[in-house]
Amino acid sequence: MRTSICERLGIEFPLFAFSHCRDVVAAVTNAGGFGVLGAIAYSPEQLDTELTWIDGQVGGRPYGVDVLVPGKVDASALDRQAHLMDFVPERHRDFVTHLLSKYGVSAPIQPLTAAADEFGRRVTAAGATGLIDVALKHPIGLIASALGPPPPEMVARAREAGVPVAALVGTVEHARRQVAAGADLIVAQGTEAGGHTGDISTMVLVPQVVDAVAPVPVLAAGGIASGRQMAAAMALGAEGVWCGSVWLTTEEAETSPAVKRKFLAASSLDTVRSRSRTGKPARQLKSAWTEEWDSGQESPGPLGMPLQLLVAEGAMARIGAAAEKGEPGAVELVNYFVGQVVGQLDQVRPAREVVYDMISEFGEAVERLRLLTGSD
Amino acid sequence: MRTSICERLGIEFPLFAFSHCRDVVAAVTNAGGFGVLGAIAYSPEQLDTELTWIDGQVGGRPYGVDVLVPGKVDASALDRQAHLMDFVPERHRDFVTHLLSKYGVSAPIQPLTAAADEFGRRVTAAGATGLIDVALKHPIGLIASALGPPPPEMVARAREAGVPVAALVGTVEHARRQVAAGADLIVAQGTEAGGHTGDISTMVLVPQVVDAVAPVPVLAAGGIASGRQMAAAMALGAEGVWCGSVWLTTEEAETSPAVKRKFLAASSLDTVRSRSRTGKPARQLKSAWTEEWDSGQESPGPLGMPLQLLVAEGAMARIGAAAEKGEPGAVELVNYFVGQVVGQLDQVRPAREVVYDMISEFGEAVERLRLLTGSD
């Protein structure tokens, strides 16, 4: 396809696949799209291993890396001398213990201090820097910042390495700020997306962002998991699309079987924007976890980021393991980030097949429009 | 354009304009679109007057009528022997009195009983029947039901008169139910729309509804106020679009000057889905009214429909009049139903010009897609 972003990045089809799973990233890149590895789950050493593996798979085809850099973090949690978990109030720990007990999750509650510190630091500006250093040692084609404007240091290093910087936004104001901060590519993400989102829908947000930041290219995100939706996004003025949820039910996905089953059964009414997993509003599957935190009588209310993320990740690791063993209470609690398109995901397919189906349906949608308007 | 709905209704361009203003309905119909008059604001006699006026303007071109038929109404309020206002609890009346006083709205609080009864009954199934009777005496091309499945009697009468029935839905499940109830045309409305909406965005909802009710034609609603957005909606599989908000800042619109000024200044972040005006979640401009009802310390919480509608309409009539006089507290309170596209509306234009601009931009968007894909 002839969009500016295809030319700039040297790709056939402007379909960006955000995934925490290296197999998805490689499969999409090899199918003519552009895989972007979410680095949040990795330490710098692990990230290096993952990227080395991808390099071996994609034969020089371009792929990217996404780091989560929040604009605002709880400053008290940034003190490197302290343990992050020490900042989690007693009643929040108690509430998690209560939840696990109420739902009969059998796994023991162990102290999480060291792992939590490591994990929590990664979502700070300082922590992200370590990941960026590793990423730029690999032949990546894009580095993305999922939250807040990219730190000046990240932009400077990417520039030096000749790697374009992409930034996710949910408002026109943020898009302008990101471009001012040096973003080369804006991902305008509607409220229907999985993960951290704003209030404005993709249909409304994308044209406004396109007009506000032109000639900077814009990718559309949120509500896109089919070729028709991709064609719609491009009709709005986007140069391509950024998809996350659609990969979560692919064969390659890291999604645990219990969560995958819940995704396949869910309708588009089964997601909620909740602060219960990260401390910021993030769209995810509704589950007993979101219900208990958001409207449970005993809920102390979620903490900010990164503390809520620590609390939730620690608990979810146990819940996920118990759900895999088939414990019914754990199955009620377990969830994951996903957009409203979850209602469209009803079968497990290889990621490559998803790409090819989207390309094919995209072509049909454009052809249908052409015939409707009689421009032949 | 060659969509099935254009052929069925005999229109050039599948752009449906929902408006409470006869001038907008006539202007859009005369420009090649399809105007639909919202009948909720009228008594049967007034509706007859409005439709007679439209008949005189459109020279036989087709237009439609929309009635608000809620699926569920508070049964206790349906007793024709009682005054609807008698069902409004004292503390809700007191809260309105308090609000008007707090914001210095000068208009006196008068009993609303008779007008409220008349107004409230119109949004019941029985009340809607009177409007439907009147509508079917005019040469209308469509009758629409904005809430809940169309009553069997409405479908039967419309069938007899050869008039297609359209129904607005916010979920796939409701779409299936509407088709089973006899709807000839489904309007799939995303959460970003103004007025009563569900949770699912247009981008996600439309393709699912199209697939679920095929071959019944689907119009897309919510987030559509430009030709690019119309092209996106058609790429999703819609046969046309249903727009409401975009007409509210036209020259012809009935929107009061104070509200129009607020709309022109608003961004897409300035709407909220609130139960404070009708008792059901309806997207509208954020204002002191929505803030006070939804999160004010003294708020008793909104009532159901139609009681909250009575309370709100009675108060808003006074607030609107005071806002027109420039009373600052009234300007803070005043609002109206509008979708997230309000952020795009920044000038007052004739409705005809809006239609022509949408047609023109639609063509450009389709042409851009054609060039991107190289299908030339």
Please provide a written account of the structure.
With 376 residues, chain A is α/β, with parallel strands linked by helices. Chain A has two domains: 218 residues, Aldolase class I (TIM Barrel); 112 residues, no CATH class. Helices cover 44% and strands 12% of the residues of chain A. Chain A is built from 15 helices and eleven strands. Chain A has an eight-stranded parallel β-barrel with strand order 1-2-3-4-5-6-8-9, surrounded by six helices. A three-stranded antiparallel sheet of chain A has the order 7-11-10, with no helix packed on it. In chain A, β8, α10 and β9 form a beta-alpha-beta unit. In chain A, α8 runs parallel beside α9 and α10 packs across α15. About 2% of the residues of chain A have low confidence.
Structure summary:
Chain A has 376 residues and is of the alpha/beta class. Chain A has helices at residues 4-9, 22-30, 44-58, 90-102, 113-122, 125-135, 152-161, 172-180, 202-213, 227-235, 257-265, 288-295, 307-324, 328-333, 351-372, and strands at 15-19, 34-38, 64-67, 142-145, 165-169, 185-189, 195-196, 218-221, 240-243, 271-274, 282-285. In chain A, helix 2 packs parallel to helix 3 (44-58).
